[in-house]
Amino acid sequence: MSAGRVARRSPLLGGLHRVMDGTMLGVVAAVAVLAGLTLHWQHRWTLSFNRLESTRTLAHRLTESTAVLERHLLNRTSKPSTLVPTKVANLVYLQRPSPTVSEPQDPNLLPSLDELIDQRIRSGY
Question: Residue 54: which domain range?
Answer without folding.
Answer: 1-66
